[in-house]
Design goal:
Layout: E1 21-22, H1 23-47, H2 54-74, E2 80-81, H3 83-102, H4 116-125, H5 128-147, H6 164-243, H7 251-272, E3 284-286, H8 287-295, E4 304-308, E5 320-322, H9 325-341, E6 345-352, E7 356-363, H10 370-373, H11 398-401, H12 410-420, E8 424-428, E9 441-447
Parallel strand pairs: 4-6
Antiparallel strand pairs: 1-2, 3-5, 6-7, 7-9, 8-9
């Protein structure tokens, strides 16, 4: 059986392990905390005259200052911390704060709210495992000082005794606040990281397509520039061939020179023809011809590809679509995905009217997996084997899928690029027909004149 060719694949790195924060950032935040804690102690002890274990509190604050100074001597200012290192230093901050609050009233101290800071920093910069570890340490610290602590600083001769139920409410509020804010911060940071990595991959893919387009334009320009001197060489070689006698020793060399010059002219003529050149030069093609050209690499004995355009419209009357890199790579990625998941057949249909131009790509495969359907279009969302962000479920013909360990970037890149040309992309799972799976369906819609106008489409505004 013939092997169906595939488009060259771009390889993108998965988002790296988050949490490579600078040591200077954490040190500056710790100095800020040291300044705030020192000011609070000074105000409470000297301004308000409240009794508290000043020496022990000063020792707890000094421990943070000593840590900062040791780190400043040991590491350069630009040193970046791995997840585990940052977790250790943030855990120290939690323990230091717990010790300071133990000496000054436990969770009845209003500054117990500062337990949120290390956990939120961890959630925004570290991976999930280290964030959970730090949250667990914080939960334990809050629970311990909620039960065992020194009295809250208060005027001499007076005692503030909060009801146990109220203290339990403070403890519950801290637990819920730490849990909610850390989960929220981690989810937002995680989505931001994945989106940034996906957009970087999109820019790499688009840069590759633009390089191909520039190569095609360069080939066309070179063809025009070289055409004249090669024509002159061919004419001179032909005149020399006529002037030399048949029995001349140089006649064969002159004939070879003429033949090679004519061969070069033929090659350059093909490069100068945008419809024959496959180097990506920007040109306009009838919509049906463009779709047939993009689908051609995926045709094979195991896959039937149908390109359907309205029968009453000849190629000359079809919309003339610009072969811009964004359109070519976006449609190419969707076609490749459909070809990978299709069982036997893939259908590419195009329709248009005075208001819109529509392209629909359908396959007879299993369709989009239910667990990823709501997240289609996000980076690193895939049901291909080799990517376990959404589980081990492998969907699609295994003999075809095992060759492509997808990373969940193809559809995301295609959607971004097609939207940049002004298109609207919609994915769906049609209902099964005649006992066969409905497969997957991707519909793209443009307003008329966007990709088939007098000028190539420009990048759409966000």
């Amino acid at each position: 059986m013939l092997t169906r060719p595939t488009r060259p694949r771009l390889t993108f790195p998965m988002p790296g392990e988050r949490g490579r924060v600078r040591l200077r950032t954490l040190s500056n935040l710790r100095w800020l905390a040291i300044g705030g804690q020192s000011a609070a102690l000074f105000l409470v002890y000297f301004a308000f005259g409240f009794s508290l274990p000043l020496v022990y509190c000063a020792i707890a604050i000094a421990a943070s200052a000593v840590l900062n100074m040791v780190l400043a001597v040991r590491y350069p200012a630009t040193h970046r911390l791995a997840n585990r290192e940052a977790s250790y230093y943030l855990a120290f901050d939690v323990v230091q704060l717990a010790a300071l609050l133990y000496l000054t009233g436990g969770i009845t101290n209003p500054f117990a709210l500062m337990f949120l800071a290390p956990v939120v920093i961890a959630a925004a910069t570290l991976n999930l495992g280290n964030t959970l570890m730090l949250a667990g340490i914080t939960f334990v610290a809050v629970s311990v000082i909620g039960v065992v602590h020194r009295p809250l600083p208060w005027p001499a001769g007076e005692t503030l005794a909060l009801p146990p139920l109220y203290q339990s409410g403070i403890w519950a509020a801290l637990m819920i606040g730490i849990g909610f804010t850390s989960i929220y911060a981690w989810r937002m940071a995680s989505e931001s990281t994945r989106m940034s990595a996906g957009l970087a991959a999109t820019q790499l893919a688009l840069a590759r397509e633009h390089r191909l387009a520039a190569l095609g334009a360069l080939a066309t320009a070179a063809a025009h520039e070289l055409g004249t001197p090669l024509g002159t060489i061919a004419v001179v070689a032909r005149e020399l061939e006529r002037a030399l006698p048949e029995n001349s020793a140089e006649i064969e060399d002159v004939r070879l020179l003429r033949q090679q010059a004519e061969r070069c002219r033929a090659i350059i003529a093909r490069l100068a023809d945008p419809e024959q050149s496959m180097l990506g030069a920007t040109a306009r093609l009838p919509l049906g011809a463009l779709l047939d050209d993009l689908a051609a690499p995926y045709r094979g004995d195991d896959l039937d590809i149908i390109v359907a355009v309205p029968m009453e419209d000849s190629p000359a009357s079809q919309p003339q679509v610009w072969r811009v890199p964004e359109l070519l790579h976006g449609l190419g990625n969707i076609l490749e995905n459909a070809a990978d998941f299709a069982s036997n057949q893939m259908r590419v249909s195009a329709t248009w009217d005075d208001a819109s131009l529509n392209i629909v790509i359908e396959d007879d495969g299993p369709g989009f997996a239910p667990e990823i359907f709501e997240r289609i279009g996000e980076p690193y969302v895939t049901s291909r084997p080799g990517h376990h962000a959404l589980g081990e479920n492998e969907i699609g013909p295994k003999d075809r899928l095992e060759q492509h360990e997808g990373m969940g970037l193809g559809f995301f890149i295609a959607k971004i690029l097609l939207e940049q040309t002004g298109g609207m992309v919609k994915a769906s799972n049609p209902a099964p027909r005649d006992g066969h799976p409905g497969g997957a369906k991707v519909a793209i819609r443009w307003a008329r004149g966007v990709i088939d106008g007098a000028e190539p489409p420009t990048q759409a505004d966000d």
